[in-house]
Amino acid sequence: LFFCPTQTVERRVRANDREYNEKFQYASNCIVTSKYNVITFLPVNLFEQFQEVANTYFLFLLILQLIPQISSLSWFTTIVPLVLVLSITAVKDATDDYVSKEKWMNVRVGDIIKLENNQFVAADLLLLSSSEPHSLCYIETAELDGETNMKVRQSLSVTAELGDPNSLASFDGEVVCEPPNNKLDRFCGLLCWRDCKYPLSNHNMLLRGCVLRNTETCYGLVIFAGPDTKLMQNSGRTKFKRTSIDRLMNTLVLWIFGFMVCMGVILAVGNAVWEREVGSLFQSYLAWDLPVDNFLFSAFLSFWSYVIILNTVVPISLYVSVEVIRLGHSYFINWDRKMFCPQCNTAAEARTTTLNEELGQVEYIFSDKTGTLTQNIMSFSKCSINGHAYGGYTLYTTVYQI
């Protein structure tokens, strides 16, 4: 009936019949938007944390300290601060990534749900009936396409009469439609009910992410749930975001590391000169330790020893300080009375503590309206009002659009 390159060429949904619908193993309405789970948290979080140059440096330093010939400090002095930093950041990331269960997670395909005014649409629904005249329904689709103007949806005339719970509970229509896809402006399907078939279009659908407006109540049949909804079909993978301060700190650490390498080179050259000019005089009673057999190899080992000794130049504590400041800043956002909305009785909520400093920063301005930043000059030619022609002269008007 519906062409699709995948194996599933159509979807069949029977209203109020979970046993029938569960045979197709449709997705539930539970959506997890977190980056981690119990299995992937440790490896993924460590991979993200070692994107920080300082963390990578101290891991490299720890490896060097395990080599006896160049280890000038105990490995314990490096692993303790490194584990402390990684643990604090991991706890913060796990807290940010924690996702609570949503209200509609138990909804299944084929269920009929009731929505009230100003409520988010929980799944992709076929509109069955509405409290408004002609069974109309008004929605706001800002979450889908960014448009805040109202859009109108209407149920089929044959289901508009299903306005009471008893009629909805006995409704046994079956929907045959296209499989899940990411086309927000298209829907093809049929409603089979009482030995008749009725065509369905996008005009009859309420998509997840929409908000019900100016409509007291409406009822809808769940067609797509959870990851099968068009909103989630358009969602990409969660990306690891870095702020400008993170990039700046990485750059500063690289410069500090470069300075430390220069210091190590200078000290290694000094060691080579001393071993050649002075140290050779003591070889008879104070020989080099194996595997050192010449002054150049001694200078090479000394370079890595100085890298270990100068490790305090790299400020690993700076990352901890920044994370603590971000955490405190997120609480200040939650407590800010100026960001409280009295109409909705809702306070601001910082859902992540890693991007606080990016709030309010404008980097680009885009415009999609022709002539927005240009000067339009229009020339009046002629017009006809009530059968009388006006014109014959030229009137220039200048319109500036900002």
UniProtKB/TrEMBL annotation:
<feature type="transmembrane region" description="Helical">
    <location>
        <begin position="57"/>
        <end position="86"/>
    </location>
</feature>
<protein>
    <recommendedName>
        <fullName>P-type ATPase N-terminal domain-containing protein</fullName>
    </recommendedName>
</protein>
<feature type="domain" description="P-type ATPase N-terminal">
    <location>
        <begin position="13"/>
        <end position="79"/>
    </location>
</feature>
<keyword id="KW-0547">Nucleotide-binding</keyword>
<dbReference type="InterPro" id="IPR023299">
    <property type="entry name" value="ATPase_P-typ_cyto_dom_N"/>
</dbReference>
<dbReference type="GO" id="GO:0005524">
    <property type="term" value="F:ATP binding"/>
</dbReference>
<dbReference type="GO" id="GO:0007030">
    <property type="term" value="P:Golgi organization"/>
</dbReference>
<dbReference type="InterPro" id="IPR008250">
    <property type="entry name" value="ATPase_P-typ_transduc_dom_A_sf"/>
</dbReference>
<dbReference type="GO" id="GO:0005886">
    <property type="term" value="C:plasma membrane"/>
</dbReference>
<dbReference type="GO" id="GO:0045332">
    <property type="term" value="P:phospholipid translocation"/>
</dbReference>
<keyword id="KW-0812">Transmembrane</keyword>
<keyword id="KW-0067">ATP-binding</keyword>
<feature type="transmembrane region" description="Helical">
    <location>
        <begin position="252"/>
        <end position="274"/>
    </location>
</feature>
<dbReference type="InterPro" id="IPR032631">
    <property type="entry name" value="P-type_ATPase_N"/>
</dbReference>
<keyword id="KW-1278">Translocase</keyword>
<dbReference type="InterPro" id="IPR023298">
    <property type="entry name" value="ATPase_P-typ_TM_dom_sf"/>
</dbReference>
<feature type="transmembrane region" description="Helical">
    <location>
        <begin position="294"/>
        <end position="320"/>
    </location>
</feature>
<dbReference type="Pfam" id="PF16209">
    <property type="entry name" value="PhoLip_ATPase_N"/>
</dbReference>
<dbReference type="GO" id="GO:0005802">
    <property type="term" value="C:trans-Golgi network"/>
</dbReference>
<dbReference type="InterPro" id="IPR018303">
    <property type="entry name" value="ATPase_P-typ_P_site"/>
</dbReference>
<keyword id="KW-0472">Membrane</keyword>
<dbReference type="InterPro" id="IPR023214">
    <property type="entry name" value="HAD_sf"/>
</dbReference>
<keyword id="KW-1133">Transmembrane helix</keyword>
<dbReference type="GO" id="GO:0140326">
    <property type="term" value="F:ATPase-coupled intramembrane lipid transporter activity"/>
</dbReference>
